[in-house]
Records
---
Amino acid sequence: MPELPEVETVVRDLRPRLVGQRIVAVRAGKKALRRPWTTAWGARILGRPVETVRRRGKWIVVDFEGSRCLVFHLGMTGRLTVHPPDEPNAPHTHLVFELERGEQMRFNDIRRFGSATLFEQPAALEGFFAASRLGPEPFDLHARYWQGCLAATKRCLKAVLLDQTVVAGVGNIYADESLFAARLHPARLAAAVTKAEAERLRHAVVQVLRRAIARRGSSIRNYVGGSGLKGRYQDAFRAYGRTGKPCPRCRTPIERVRLAGRSTHYCPSCQV
DNA sequence: ACAGGATCCTGGGGGC
DNA sequence: TGCCCCCAGGATCCTG
């Protein structure tokens, strides 16, 4: 579910609620997440103040004083939210972190594609990102690197945008919205686009992501920010989920196809 | 090496 | 109402 704008919103919501606070208790449910939570990890983060809350791609990083960090991925249906202690746990709550002031940060995930992992050192986390070959942030995407990535693959544009080793943070919604904004057909062979088209797409991704962050991301079914608030960018979609509705540029009905295993929405007339 | 498909999971919606 | 099928903001493993 959550792509870069949603994850960024969670991070911004959590930051003022967590930084400077200590975790006084951790409780874990029984069901396994994507990467298994190790019971002993709870004890290793107790009593240390949270130093920073940050984002890398679709990953949420909570750094503690003294070098340990907790890293979350929200998968498709994950939520990381802060609640008053007397509020009952929603179904599918897998981890509860009790904060010293009494509130609780809860990790909830219906489909359990998400994960929570402890790293002992920042270097271990960097090693993990390096091992998974996590690509650069979209906002740091250099023109030559990007053009090189496009030129070096036989895949279509949609598949390249979804590839986290090329650029980190773009998912199905923002891939479609970026391609629409750049007026590029999602099935276009990446290696066949001109330099000008590649630049159009690079700028479109940044613009779409910034606008989505400004609206706190997109809430279609499960997503809420760290404060429990929904996003509003779903009301600004121009292609994603608009199958059969008129293209906001040329009124041609938006079409839907399957590309790179994912539903893909585009205007067959003005995306070329 | 690369690209595409299957797989992990649960729940909601549509059709019959 | 019930059942079955398809669909979903993602990443990883397996195959050809």
---
Amino acid sequence: MPELPEVEVLKKTLEPRLIGRVIRRIDVVERRLREPVNAARLRRDCLERRIVGLRRRAKYLLIDFRGGTTLVVHLGMSGRLTLAPQRSAPEPHEHLSFALSGGARLRFRDPRRFGLVFSANTKRLANDKHFRLLGSEPLAPDFSGDLLADLAESRTAPVKSFLMDGRNVVGIGNIYACEALHRSGIHPFRKAGRISAKRWDVLAAAIREVLGDAIEQGGTTLNDFADGEGNSGYFQIDLAVYGREGQPCWRCGRSIRRRVLSNRSTFYCPGCQR
DNA sequence: CGGGCGGCCTGGAGGC
DNA sequence: TGCCTCCAGGCCGCCC
């Protein structure tokens, strides 16, 4: 389940191994993803071009080429992007792979096909339909409780839905929304517009903390990941509420509850989240 | 237009 | 043991 931290770790892991490489060949084996893979466009934008940088925006990994084009990868729910030897066999559920100068191959596989791979002109990316409406980066310096409070004014949606809406703030999935709200003592069903400025500050800090911790955890198994085992350390994170229905809250001892919100499991502590 | 919800997709878990 | 159902969830599109 790749969320912002896993994409960030993936970016850091791949960066030293991709920068300076040239894509020599693109093999598409299964076009069906969230949107069909456009092989012709990929080849036009990426083939025989040198990789000059990697970036992350929301849960998208961006690979920039000399000459002003960008390869965009979204892992969806089950996507994996791994480096393998050039001549290794395709992996199960592989969609496409990129043969690189220097003897490696970048492989993308995604059993559930919620992922997305496409390329575009770098300068036009900000106006692309996938990026145009994206909200703030929670790890950017300008992210703050004030920013969230302004956005949330008079909004009646539950704060958890507000946090998971990428038009407000990006990168927060179901797990981290639950965890950040627990850390800040806010009930997930509380209306976003009815949270005080002070509590928005606490929540903004908790979001940065929980995402930062997850990135650090991912970093501990960076080597496994780089070896292509696909293990980012994601599952090693200590979760306080997510998946702990019926178990005692570590802070107050009350039993963790699970309720469905917008068809998603929502975990919270009835004792310390008000 | 904000908010809610269903659909996409498949592997794995759990029930009978 | 094997089959069936359900659930996981990011994102989009539809509906009210």
---
Amino acid sequence: MPELPEVEITKRGIEPWVLDKTMSQAEVRNSSLRWKVPDDLNQKVKSQKIVSLKRRGKYILAELSNQQNLIIHLGMSGSLRVIKNAQAPEKHDHVIFHLQNGVELRFNDPRRFGCILLTNDIQNHALIKNMGPEPLTTEFNGQYLKSLAKNKTQAVKNFIMDGKVVVGVGNIYACESLFAAGIHPKRAASKVSLQKYEQLVEEIKKVLSQAIESGGTTLRDFVNSEGKPGYFAQQLKVYGRKGEDCFNCQSPIAQITLGQRSSFYCKKCQH
DNA sequence: CAGCACTCCTGTTCGC
DNA sequence: TGCGAACAGGAGTGCT
């Protein structure tokens, strides 16, 4: 499932093929995504050049020459692939952006939790404006987390997965960074010390950076812009390892549900 | 406001 | 072997 590293990998992969390129058509084959793909998508993107490509949290933002911004989210199972030689669309290729250079950018998403939207005011768009800081910036640090966590009874795992706190930290990387920092996922956010938050921030940055270097985590669905999987899954220390030995202390990894999500942790190493 | 649970969806896995 | 149930989860929405 695409989290920040997978979205970053996707953005980097498509960038050379779409930046400064002009679109000839947006072919909507299935508009029924998380939110309906705008009816006027083709009309608005046709003949427009992609003048910048950015990632914000797990959103990919493509700025067009007519001041519109495409907002793309990969949801749970989405991918954006660059198709250089025209071939028949595959199942779940919901939107195909045709470029004038003959390349196609295909949005494929079996579970359709993703979205493709357009806005002429990206800064104030509802999905964007209330987002927390990017995790790989200095703005995201231990002090910041500690002060936000004040009086919060919420479990620390849910806290760091809240996009208003910090963007891009999904279930897998939340589990991994909490393990690396030795923090129990259920611990109340307010009861985590500043030192522990500093350690947690360091681990979040580390695990996200390493995952980007490995091309992302592919558990089942994720493929990059070339249709290839990422290789970080084999470096996961706790996620998906219920009952297996902790790499640190050899006791079995536990699984609990927190905020409707599976959480994996070591009872002995995380407090 | 804070903190949950619910919801969208399909492919895969599991139990009988 | 086949079938239905359970599970997976990003994140906005709505409820308590």
